[in-house]
Amino acid sequence: MVTLTRTTVAGRAKSRGRRHRGETLTKVLFVLPAAVAMVALFGYPVVKNLLMSLQDYGLKTFFTGVAPWVGLQNYSTVVTDKLFSDAMVNTALFTIGSISFQFAIGLGLALFFHKKFPLSGLLRSLLLLPWLLPLIVSSATWRSILEQDSGILNRSLMGLHLINDPVPWLNSPSVALIAVIGVNIWIGIPFNVTLLYSGLAEIPDELYEAGQLDGATGWRAFFYITWPNLRSVASVVLMLGVVYTIKVLDIILGLTGGGPANATQTLATQSYEKSFIDFKFGQGAALSNILIALSFLFAIFYLRGTRRAVDE
Amino acid sequence: MISKRIAAALAGATTVSLLLVACGDNGGGQSSTSGDSVKSLTILDYYNNDPDKSLVQKGLDSCASKLGITIQRETVPGDTLIQKVLQQASSKTLPDVLMLDNPDVQQIAATGALAPLNDMGLNSDGVIQGMVDATSYEGKLYGLAPVTNTIALFYNKDMLAEAGVQPPKTWDELKAAAKKLTKPGRYGIAFNANATYEGSWQFLPAMWTNGGDETDLTSPQVAEALQLWVDLVKSGSASKSVINWTQGDAKDQFAAGKAAMMVNGPWQIPALEKTPNVKWDVVTFPLNKPDQTPVAPLGGEAWTVPLNKDQAKQQKAADFVKCLNSDENELAWAKARFTLPTKTALLDQYAKEVPSMKAFAEQVKTARARTGKLGDKWPDAAKVIYQAIQLALTGKASPQDAFKQASGG
């Protein structure tokens, strides 16, 4: 009798151990597909790109498989390139210009749509249209809108007698970057409106009612109630915006191809050009790694920001 | 239960792989004994739009039936061809016959991917020198182009007659004519000066005709040629948008009656025929000084044979390229596709039969290949050229300084 009990207890413990091990195995199996996908789709390209940037990876490499190790030479070549500083400045202007206007206009529109009025839902969904268009289509359309002689924008401005001479939107090195930023703002507004609008919807109405009793209306309500409650959403929008904008390629390629006279070259277009026009894949990889490092910097800010928000 | 399933799967896989091995053995075994066992060839080219796509197909089909083989053809858009070739090269799946734009032949040949055609019974006898230069690398022939093209000056007959202007023969006449033909809503001339290799290509007739050379881009002759472009834009005879226009855009402007002349190639003729109210003709590119001869760049695609472990297949592919370059096919493609045969002996006969191509036929005889002098270093020079054009046309540098600045000086 006693022995029997003992064996069952031992057996139960054993089976529990086995079940425990099975559970761990199941957990690992559940994680495995995601891990494999991460390594294959994220890890491999990043590592490969890092290696490539340290090699003389050119046309020949594709045929012979030989890519001599050159250390940091690709980095020094691209950094000392006469276009590098221009590209850095343009990237900064493009990112800051796009983000600040996208955010400001986006916030304005989100506040506007937060006040319920007839057809506001319909209008808000129409606002998403720029986001739904393929970027190549948007840039081709804008290219014809901004055409100097027969583009509809110059034609309308001339017809309204707002300008006397057609503005060389995409033809002048001093205007082209502004035009490209303008188009990118147009594309980015829906993203900002959507996220900020949902952030506004989260703010409980009671806060405003209580605020009203204390005399916080209009601008004061915005500064003391809306903005503090919207801050975490706003920081997400801004950080994601920076990471999206800093690497924009298709819009610039479609509008100006980096021209005129390299006036709209950014790190992204330079990296593309090095890789796919000059076939200097090593240098292209070096540039894109610099770009990734910059994005990473902002990603760290973002992660720290959100962690603090959670802690609060 | 599970092990049974695995066993079944394994058995299935083994059968499939055995079959594959059997097939592979079969093909390999036969081809090593006789060349006639090659039953099919794979082909890659960038004629992906009609009418070119089907017109090229006709030529390919007739050669295939002559050689008694079938072909599997793949077409990709022009700007993705090289990327496709690189992918295929790294996965060792290059086609048996590969079409390349002629300035790319030397670059690809330099990587060691192509088979020299001389060793397989092909030669470039009778082919215009410019094309031989373009398709040879280190003394060996790597490709043959059945047809070629170049660029010249198109003009709108009605507009010139209305303005009382003769087709320009010199740069001074060109500038005067362009100015006279310009009126509200219309420019005298359209060309492409964008920041791509196409922009450099359009600049070459002016640069080469004036004695400029890509081996010394800081020479006064090259600066003079750039001055012509600058004068045309500054005087308002050409749109400021030329720095963003492609050759297709220039054609659209011309076809819409928004430009009275344009620098362009014969491949635009089918599109121009769709607007029959625009009556046009073509003259060779004007000269700076009367004693010069017009020198234009050679366009057109060469057919090459990538190296193949299967010798018989490689030989068959070479035979196929030879057939594509027969007199008969050269003339057929030239006539159907508004291009020019590459053999000197065929050019005169061709110009008589197709009068609209007369100016181009003349221009081709003296035309040069872009890679003729610099070989696989041409892309670097081409980049300096288009960047210098951009600097000069946007007023960021004078034509004299533009090339120095663009080459990093």
TrEMBL record, chain B:
<comment type="similarity">
    <text>Belongs to the bacterial solute-binding protein 1 family.</text>
</comment>
<keyword id="KW-0732">Signal</keyword>
<dbReference type="GO" id="GO:0055052">
    <property type="term" value="C:ATP-binding cassette (ABC) transporter complex, substrate-binding subunit-containing"/>
</dbReference>
<keyword id="KW-0813">Transport</keyword>
<dbReference type="GO" id="GO:0015768">
    <property type="term" value="P:maltose transport"/>
</dbReference>
<dbReference type="GO" id="GO:1901982">
    <property type="term" value="F:maltose binding"/>
</dbReference>
<feature type="signal peptide">
    <location>
        <begin position="1"/>
        <end position="22"/>
    </location>
</feature>
<dbReference type="InterPro" id="IPR006059">
    <property type="entry name" value="SBP"/>
</dbReference>
<dbReference type="GO" id="GO:0042956">
    <property type="term" value="P:maltodextrin transmembrane transport"/>
</dbReference>
<dbReference type="Pfam" id="PF13416">
    <property type="entry name" value="SBP_bac_8"/>
</dbReference>
<protein>
    <submittedName>
        <fullName>ABC transporter substrate-binding protein</fullName>
    </submittedName>
</protein>
